[in-house]
Amino acid sequence: MSIMSKKSIAALAVGLALGLSACGGAEGDTQAETQTQAQETLTYEGERSAQMDIDLEKQIQSLSEYSGIPVTITGNYDVTDENVESTLLQLLGYMGAGTTEVTDRDVVEEGDYVMIDYTGYKDDVAFEGGAAEDVLMDPVNNVVATTQMPYIDGFCKDLIGSKVGDVLRTDVTFPEDYNNPDLAGAPAVFEITVKGIYRPVTFETLTDDAVAAAFSADGITTKDGLVEYVRSMLTSQMASYRSQASVSAVQAYILEHSEVEIPEAYMQARMDELEYSTAKDNCRDGQTLSEFLEENGTTLEAERENWKSSLSQQIKVEFLFGRIADLENIEVDEEDFQQFINYIIQSDGGSFSAAEDVYEYYGIGNKEDGEKALKQLYRVNQAVGFVVDHAEVTVENDAKNAGGGETDSTQGE
Fold first, then answer.
1. DSSP state of 214
2. SS3 of 296, please?
3. How many CA atoms are closer than 13 Å to the CA of 239, on its beta-carbon side?
4. Cα distances (angstroms) measured from residue 8 to each of 19, 67, 273, 314
């Protein structure tokens, strides 16, 4: 996997949802501190791509026809009742409302969930990290019901048939490759207290009262209201997936049917900027980029090859859709552009507190360059949207194709 900086991720978002989160591990205050440490020792001395005048008409030998282009995307973007019910039940689980307590019996049956406390012992001594309270287990699958986290084989073997209030002693053997060397391959005993029996909520057993208890703070108080909310959420999500697939198909079509060259000096400047920003984002305490990359299982030479390949495709997209923006007289709407900048600020884990911070970062220390580059990226995104809106998009639905090859052809998204 290629190591990238935030700057490269921003550019890769052309035409998509502009997901501009950091890559490399540090987040929030730690990420900002890392960047500050690196910035104190790194100075960019190369040419700046934002200061190069690129004649797009000259660099583009041929530009594809871009109005009404035919593209095909594959996927199933329909929202079914089954999708809604499944997602609704997952949402209930996340909210801690995915189960109901069984009170008319005290014996655990197959299909029940069981609330337990437990303590693990090795050689009759409780071991560290081996105790927990109020854990809801799915005995049939030997996993935590709420997270599906698996437990050691045999942990739940005595739960089915037990009674509320029972204290069980269950023998297990830790696997040889267990991550705690003191327990790897060792026999142990878990003392398990059965505290309650629960049943997973199904769509059929879900009540308005249960919905209101979990979602009233969000203004959802009935089962029908929750269904409507989930269906709307999934419909929006599927529309986003379809739009992203259309963007990818449109970009691929324009690239395939156009010819464009990248000036060598411009490519080198973009490579230098990417290398610099990757070091700034990831290196600290005098560490070099080569050292950082080797610690992460790669080399600077290998990363440069990865960067050059991805940048070549990326810059071609920027040039081609930048030219379309010129031809269609697409201008920067300042209000929309500021929303774009605000999205970057809000999505970047606390690295930026104001637009000037964003401009300085994306301009490699030069705010004017950063603002210029981001406005051009904004225009490119607008041009991509323009072409998608006017494309003839055919959707090949996987599920329907399996049953007869139906397709859905529409214009735009």
1. H
2. coil
3. 8
4. 11, 29, 9, 9
* Alpha-carbon distances of 206 from 37, 199, 211, 296, 353, rounded to whole Å: 53, 12, 8, 48, 44
Interval 379-408: pLDDT, tens? 999 999 999 999 999 999 765 444 344 455
In whole angstroms, give the CA distance from residue 11 to residue 304. 17
The list of the chain residues with pLDDT below 70 reads 1-42, 398-413
Residue ranges, comma separated, of all CATH 3.10.50.40 domains in the chain are 99-200
Say whether 92 sits in a helix, a strand or coil. Answer: helix
What secondary structure letter does DSSP report for 179? S
Q: Which residues pair with 136 in a beta bridge?
A: 115
Give the residue range(s) of CATH 1.10.3120.10 domains in the chain: 6-77+232-411
Q: Which two tokens stand for residue 409?
A: 């052809």
Asked whether the beta carbons of 413 and 246 are under 8 A apart, the reply is yes
Measuring CA to CA, which residue among 37, 6, 18 is closest to residue 349? 6
Position 3 scores a pLDDT of 53
Domain 99-200 of CATH type 3.10.50.40: yes
Nearest Cα neighbor of 300 from 314, 315, 287, 317 is 287
Q: Which residue has tokens 């005995």?
A: 139
Give the percent of the chain with pLDDT over 70: 86
Relative orientation angle of helices 334-347 and 367-389, to the nearest 10 degrees = 110
Tokens of 263: 């000036």
Cα-atom radius of gyration of the chain, to the nearest Å? 28
Helix (H) or strand (E) holding 138, with range, is strand 125-138
The pLDDT tens digits of the residues spanning 41-75 come to 567 888 999 999 999 999 999 999 999 999 999 99
DSSP per-residue letters across 334-365? HHHHHHHHHHHHHHTTTS-SSHHHHHHHHTTT
Distance CA 358, CA 291 (A): 27
